[in-house]
């Protein structure tokens, strides 16, 4: 019987002399050597890495941690669930590590804030129906934009690694049919944007320009249209684990995550009678509980939620946050032990589901661990992401992204005049790349021929801005608005 190994490795380019190992390991090394990967050191995880020297995770360190956790999960599955996993398409540690390294390549400057602003501008100003999405941008980079593989475009990765990057294996609209955004209970990420019912899926992993690559990559795998491959599910779960643990660590280190506020919320909920409080301490946590109970009936349990709150309160509130971080070796040890203990616990709860419900995947956290991750994420979102000082900082970042898109799009419009100043070479190249893609789609009747030029310019601007670091974005806006006098330094951002 064909075990699928050749199909999983299909699409791999020649590795070249001197490169040894499986094609999946070559994929991993090729991603790690990409300048798009190196760029992640200057891209926000939650708070911009620029500024006063705060030692916070960035997208690069986050990706490395996701890769570490993903490999640990894959190795554990190989030991404990080998036959079942093989039946579902296989789980190679090198594949999941490569996918983890690649999963955030498409994140724009300023992280999720930049992602939201670019999506709105792409749809509303540039006329791109599928807008912008970080996961789809990552897939576009590895298949189309990055030129550091042996071929003319993309990295020349195997089908297995390309499929493992697809956390949301559908387009914003139309593919597959039926589309997840039309479902009464869509898969996670498959529903529309909040408040925009006709927007297609909020999360998706391929633009219309890369749909052929998505289909080809997933063809060898025995998964339904809305389901991740096993390796994609491992990468996605590892991403959840790393996010839940390490962002909490970051904001304990810098003194933003205060024990009193977290303790009040968790204890306020624990002390309340059923149903939970609707105002005051514990009310926000009760709103989370109700959302989980409504959307995730496949795993949600009142008892498991209460146990998760109790565990997080004991280990985070009464443990890690009980002593302010002072930079001492003892404080660092406490953070390291918290991280190691939680990582081990969460990885140890991984299970394989042969027939998962629509909001789950073939690889999922156990019931207790799933609730614990939800509560840890809540702490981060409630006590960091909703801070007024962070919100005002992000408004400024949104202004930078908006200004860049407008200035570059205007420049492209001027560039159609014979006496216009020369475009940045990379922006010009991205326009020509997108023009070829949309011209091919026009021949297939996917877009109108009259739209090709406008769509190409819009996609090129999005590709260009999304490829910048936080610092490059600020410097480039200074150049384009005349605020920089450092011609031969800041202008290199072009």
* Unreliably modeled segments: 15-19
> What distance separates the N and C termini?
53 Å
Report mean pLDDT, rounded to a whole number.
89
Widest sheet, order of strands: 1-2
Strand content: under 5%
* Total count of strands: 2
What is the helix content? 55-70%
Order of helices and strands: HHHHHHHHHHHHHHHEEHHHHHH
Shape: globular
Q: How much is the radius of gyration in Å?
A: 23 Å
Give me the secondary-structure category: mainly alpha
Plain-language structure description:
- By secondary structure, the chain is mainly α.
- Helix content is 56%, strand content 1%.
- It is built from 21 helices and two strands.
- It has helices spanning 5-8, 23-32, 35-38, 59-80, 82-87, 93-102, 111-124, 134-145, 159-164, 211-218, 230-253, 259-271, 283-295, 302-317, 329-348, 367-385, 388-414, 425-443, 452-466, 470-480, 487-490, and strands at residues 350-352, 363-365.
- A two-stranded antiparallel ribbon has the order 1-2.
- Helix 4 crosses helix 11, helix 17 (388-414) packs across helix 19 (452-466) and helix 18 packs across helix 19.
- The longest helix is centred in the last third of the chain and has 27 residues, at 388-414.
Keywords for this structure?
494 residues, mainly alpha, 1% strand, globular
């Amino acid at each position: 019987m064909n075990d699928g190994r050749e199909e999983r490795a299909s699409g791999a380019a020649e590795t070249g002399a001197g490169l040894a190992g499986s094609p999946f390991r070559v994929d991993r090394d090729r991603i790690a050597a990409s300048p798009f990967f190196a760029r992640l050191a200057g891209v926000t995880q939650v708070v911009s890495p620029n500024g006063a020297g705060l030692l916070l995770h960035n997208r690069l360190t986050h990706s490395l941690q996701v890769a570490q956790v993903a490999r640990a999960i894959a190795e554990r599955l190989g030991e404990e669930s080998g036959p079942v996993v093989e039946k579902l398409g296989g789980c190679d540690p090198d594949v999941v590590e490569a996918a983890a390294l690649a999963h955030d390549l498409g994140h724009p400057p300023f992280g999720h804030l930049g992602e939201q602003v670019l999506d709105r501008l792409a749809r509303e100003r540039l006329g791109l129906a599928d807008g912008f999405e970080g996961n789809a941008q990552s897939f576009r980079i590895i298949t189309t934009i990055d030129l550091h593989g042996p071929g003319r475009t993309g990295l020349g990765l195997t089908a297995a690694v390309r499929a493992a990057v697809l956390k949301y294996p559908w387009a914003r609209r139309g593919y597959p049919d039926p589309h997840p955004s039309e479902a009464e209970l869509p898969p996670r990420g498959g529903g529309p944007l909040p408040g925009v019912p006709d927007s297609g899926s909020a999360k998706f992993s391929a633009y219309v320009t890369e749909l052929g690559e998505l289909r080809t990559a997933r063809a060898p795998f025995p998964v339904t249209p809305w389901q991740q491959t096993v390796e994609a599910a491992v990468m996605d779960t590892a991403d959840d684990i790393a996010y839940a643990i390490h962002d909490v660590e970051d904001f304990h280190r810098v003194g933003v995550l205060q024990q009193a506020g977290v303790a009040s919320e968790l204890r306020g909920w624990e002390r309340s009678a059923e149903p939970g409080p609707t105002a005051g301490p514990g009310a926000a946590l009760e709103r989370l509980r109700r959302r989980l109970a409504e959307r995730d009936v496949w795993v949600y349990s009142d008892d498991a939620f209460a146990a998760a709150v109790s565990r997080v309160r004991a280990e985070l509130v009464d443990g890690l946050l009980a002593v302010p971080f002072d930079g001492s070796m003892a404080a660092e040890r406490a953070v390291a032990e918290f991280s190691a203990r939680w990582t081990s616990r969460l990885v140890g709860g991984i299970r394989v589901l042969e027939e998962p419900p629509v909001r789950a995947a073939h690889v999922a956290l156990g019931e207790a661990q799933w609730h614990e991750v939800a509560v840890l994420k809540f702490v981060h979102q409630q006590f960091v992401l909703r801070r007024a000082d962070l919100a005002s900082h992000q408004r400024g970042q949104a202004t930078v992204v908006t200004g860049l898109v407008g200035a570059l799009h205007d420049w492209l419009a001027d560039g159609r005049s014979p006496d216009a100043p020369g475009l940045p070479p990379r922006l010009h190249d991205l326009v020509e790349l997108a023009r070829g893609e949309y011209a091919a789609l026009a021949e297939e009747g996917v877009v109108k021929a009259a739209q090709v030029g406008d769509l190409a310019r819009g996609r090129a601007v999005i590709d260009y801005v999304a490829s910048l670091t936080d610092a490059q974005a600020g410097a480039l806006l200074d150049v384009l608005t005349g605020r920089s006098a450092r011609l031969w330094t800041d202008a290199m951002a072009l």
